[in-house]
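Course assignment 3, question 2. Fill in each field.
Student: A.L.
Task: Predict the tertiary structure for the chain below.
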Amino acid sequence: MSKIIKEIQKGRVLVSDGAWGTFLQKKGLKPGECPEAWNITRPDDVFDIAQSYIKAGSDMIETNSFGGNWFKLKGYGLEDQVFELNRTAAEISRKAAGSDHFVLGSVGPTGKLLMMDEVTEDELYKAFKEQSIALEAGGADAIVIETMTDLEEARIAVQAAKENTACEVICTMTFDKILSGEYRTMMGISPSEMTETLIEAGATIIGANCGNGIADMIGIVKEIRQVNETIPILIHANAGMPHYCDGKTTFPETPADMARRVKEITEAGANIIGGCCGTTPDHICEVHHVVKNL
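Answer field:
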């Protein structure tokens, strides 16, 4: 049993970190530039992001490796640096986390569709295996497979991480609220359909990230709990739905807005709470204060 699960079983609600992509953009990441390359070219900036979330009160931080799989890196001509970029990403977050905080190795989708025969199951497995092994080598405590919309790709990623590392395996999918009020991924998968498939594949923590502010995440947590009463749930909510105006994307939810929903989402069954797009260390600091006083 991992230390993360042990902490949850003690009754603790854990605080995760916030956005990385929007933070990198504020630091100067340009459109079309590879975020993972910064692990080598601008490691101090990557470390600063990780450290800022630790200072804000995070119990765990992710790694700058969301697009670090072979397929994504190939688009930048960096496919031969998969291991180096992912290992370094984990090393940077490990340095920021120290020995008393957890590091979650971030693994995102490949961008390739099984149903369109753009990739095979074996190719996906190999890519997720390579990335997961590198993240573990850099010091990750867990692999967090996130922003998934295709359940089959998520299942393969979970199996690859579970079968080839000793890390805890977490998987979150991204849901949208449809007109009926139900939640579905872009590929039509519901939180209920996700739950047992991911658990059977080897995930020991599941949940949702991106796509919704914290208010809509509450409904997703409740649906997961209807299917499984005990599986730990991780939620990384956006700072509301993005607004695009005058060439800029902004997120409307303030740190106080997010904090106001923390008690409600923990009562619904969430065990780990953090942020996704648009959230900042200030959001995480406010979440930390609420969690500390629950």
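Instructor remarks: The mean pLDDT is 96. Residues 121-137 form the longest helix (17 residues).
Grade: pending
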